[in-house]
Design a protein that fits this description.
527 residues; alpha+beta; Methylamine Dehydrogenase, Chain H; four-stranded antiparallel β-sheet; 6 helices; 27 strands; 15% helix; globular; WD40_rpt; DNA binding; DNA damage-binding protein CMR1; WD repeat
C-alpha cells in the first residue's frame, strides 16, 4: 500500500535530524582540531535556536604541549573566523592595510635602481652557464588578425619579378635557415619576455645580446657546436647550449647599442632610469647615467650613438624628452643636455648615420618627426617636419641612405625617403612642408601586438653587401618579414619549432644573420 502524507513527513524529519547530527559532529571535529593546533582558543558560542533551548556544554581545553623550537614554524593561511577576527572589524582592516603596504614596499625595493659598479659575480644569475671568461673572446598581412603559421609570402612570390637583382636578393634572403645546432625551444636566452636585441658587430661569429622585461641580459655565442653524444656517454654530456645570463638592471631593458669603434662596450638603457656600460672583456658593468635621486623615475625608451663618435650618448624617455651626454665628462660634473620634444612618450628614435645631427622620433602622439640638432631650441624646439598617422607610431629607424622606416598601430609600415630629397645637403634651419613629409611607400602590416607581445619595430641592416637596402620586422603569424627600402618583400623567415611570435627582430650590421626574440625569452636565429 502507498505511504500516507504523515509517514512521508516522518521520514523527511528523520533525515533532517540525521543531517543536523552529522553537521554537528563535523563542526565538533573541526573545532577540536583547530584548538589542538593553537589556531584559536575561544570556545564556540552556544548555537542559537538549538533544540530544547539548551546551550552546548563547555569543553575542557586541550592542554598545550610545549615544543622545542628546532625550526621556524610553517605559516598557514587562516581565515578571519579561525583567527577570531570579526568580519569588517577595525582589526581586520588594519591588518589588511599593513599587509598591502608591506607588499608595496617590497615591490618598490625590488624595482629600485642599483647604482653600484657590478662585476660578473654581482650580475650572474644563479644556475646559468657561463661560456668563457669574456663574452667576446679574442675575436671580435591580414589587418589586425594574427593567423599562426599562415604565410603571406612564399616560394612562388620569390620569382614574381623581372628585376634580376631583386630576384637574386629574394632567393638569398629566403634561403636563410634556422640555426641547426639547437631548436628554438632550447634557446631560452632570458627568463622573461624579450624586449630588445642586438648583434655584436663582429663578422667572425654571431654573438647575440637580449634584454628582457625584468632587467635580465642574456648572451649567446651562436658559433658553438652541439656536442656529439655517443651511445655510452649519452647521460654524461650536457646538450644544452652555453648561455650567459646577467642582471644589470632592475626593470625592463628597453634598448641597447654597441658602437663599432668601441666594440668591447655594450650600452644598455632601462625603465629603471639608468644607462649602464658593460665591458665585454672585463665582464663589468658601470652606471654612466642616472638621475641624482634614486626616487626620481625617468624611464628611458631608446639609445643611439653616432657611427663616427664613440664618446657621445643620445637617448629618449617615456616622458617625451631627448638627451645628449658626453662620456668623457666626469659623472659627478657631467652636464646632460635635454630637450622636451613631445608631451607624450617617445617610443623609438634613431640618428641619421651619415649626418648624426639629423634624427627621427616616433611618438605616442601619432607623429613621426624629423629634427636637426644644429638648430634645436631648448625653449621651443621645432622639428624640420612631421607626419601624423591615424594611431601611435612605435619606432622610427634611419638607414645610411637617409630613409626612415616606421611601424604604427594603424597596421602599416611607412618608408620616408629623405635621401632623394637631399638630406645630406640640408643646411641649418631647413624646413619640410606637409607634402615633403608624406611617406613614399606604405606597406600593410599587422602591428596589433596586444599586451603580451613586444611592440613590432623595423630594424635596418646598416651595411648591406648589396645596393638594395633592407630591414626586418616581426610578423604576428610567427615569422620575421624582410623588406627592401622600396617596400618589396624579400623573404618571410620561419621554421619548425617556433611556437611564439619572434616580435623583436634584428639584423646584423653586415652579415645576413637575423635574430628574433619571443615573449617566452626564446631566441630564433636564421643564418
Amino acid at each position: 500500500m502507498p505511504r500516507t502524507q504523515t509517514e512521508e513527513l516522518s521520514e523527511f524529519e528523520k533525515q533532517r535530524l540525521a543531517n543536523i547530527a552529522e553537521r554537528d559532529a563535523l563542526l565538533k571535529k573541526l573545532t577540536l582540531e583547530a584548538q589542538s593546533s593553537g589556531l584559536f582558543t575561544k570556545p564556540s558560542p552556544a548555537r542559537p535556536g538549538a533544540k530544547d533551548g539548551a546551550s552546548r556544554p563547555k569543553k575542557k581545553p586541550t592542554p598545550r604541549v610545549k615544543k622545542e623550537e628546532v625550526e621556524a614554524p610553517i605559516v598557514r593561511r587562516m581565515s578571519s573566523r579561525l583567527r577570531g577576527v570579526t568580519a569588517d572589524s577595525e582589526v581586520a582592516k588594519r591588518k589588511a592595510d599593513e599587509a598591502f603596504e608591506e607588499s608595496q614596499k617590497l615591490e618598490r625595493e625590488k624595482r629600485m635602481r642599483k647604482s653600484d659598479f657590478f662585476t660578473l659575480d654581482n650580475m650572474l644569475v644563479a644556475g646559468q652557464k657561463l661560456s668563457g671568461d669574456a663574452l667576446i673572446g679574442i675575436d671580435m598581412v591580414t589587418k589586425g588578425v594574427a593567423k599562426p603559421y599562415e604565410r603571406t609570402f612564399g616560394e612562388e612570390d620569390v620569382k614574381k619579378t623581372t628585376d634580376k637583382e631583386l630576384k637574386a636578393l629574394r632567393e638569398e634572403m629566403s634561403n636563410l635557415q634556422l640555426w641547426d645546432q639547437w631548436e628554438p625551444q632550447s634557446l631560452k636566452i632570458t627568463p622573461e619576455r624579450i624586449y630588445t636585441m642586438t648583434f655584436h658587430p663582429s663578422e667572425t661569429k654571431p654573438l647575440i645580446f637580449a634584454g628582457d622585461k625584468m632587467g635580465h641580459l642574456g648572451v649567446i655565442d651562436a658559433s658553438q657546436k652541439r656536442p656529439e653524444v655517443g651511445d655510452d656517454d649519452e647521460e654524461e654530456n650536457d646538450d644544452d647550449p652555453a648561455i650567459t645570463m646577467l642582471k644589470p638592471h632592475t626593470r625592463t631593458i628597453s634598448s641597447m647599442v654597441i658602437q663599432p669603434q668601441k666594440s668591447t662596450h655594450l650600452y644598455t638603457t632601462s625603465y629603471d632610469s639608468s644607462i649602464r656600460e658593460m665591458d665585454l672583456e672585463k665582464m663589468t658593468s658601470d652606471e654612466k647615467y642616472a638621475p641624482e635621486s634614486r626616487s626620481t623615475d625617468k624611464p628611458i625608451s631608446g639609445i643611439d650613438m653616432a657611427s663616427d663618435n664613440p664618446n657621445c650618448l643620445y637617448w629618449t624617455t617615456l616622458s617625451g624628452s631627448f638627451n645628449q651626454y658626453d662620456l668623457r665628462e666626469s659623472k659627478k660634473t657631467a652636464s646632460i643636455t635635454e630637450w622636451q620634444l613631445s608631451e607624450k612618450k617617445i617610443g623609438g628614435f634613431s640618428l641619421f648615420p651619415s649626418n648624426p645631427y639629423f634624427f627621427a622620433t616616433a611618438s605616442l602622439d601619432r607623429t613621426m618627426r624629423l629634427w636637426d640638432l644644429r638648430k634645436l631650441s631648448h625653449e621651443t624646439p621645432e622639428a624640420i617636419g612631421e607626419h601624423e598617422s591615424r594611431l601611435s607610431v612605435s619606432h622610427a629607424a634611419f638607414n645610411t641612405q637617409g630613409q626612415v622606416a616606421t611601424s604604427s598601430y594603424d597596421d602599416s609600415i611607412k618608408i620616408y625617403d629623405f635621401g632623394i630629397k637631399g638630406i645630406s645637403s640640408w643646411g641649418p634651419g631647413h624646413q619640410l612642408d606637409e607634402k615633403a613629409m608624406k611617406p613614399d611607400t606604405v606597406v600593410r602590416h599587422n602591428c596589433q601586438t596586444g599586451r603580451w607581445v613586444t611592440i613590432l619595430r623595423p630594424q635596418w641592416q646598416q651595411n648591406p653587401q648589396s645596393p638594395i637596402q633592407r630591414f626586418c620586422i616581426g610578423n604576428m603569424n610567427r615569422f620575421v618579414d624582410i623588406y627592401s627600402s622600396s617596400g618589396d618583400q624579400l623573404a618571410q623567415l620561419g621554421g619548425d619549432g617556433i611556437t611564439a611570435v619572434p616580435a623583436v627582430a634584428v639584423f646584423h650590421r653586415s652579415k645576413n644573420w637575423v635574430a628574433g626574440g619571443t615573449a617566452s625569452g626564446k631566441l630564433c636565429l636564421w643564418v
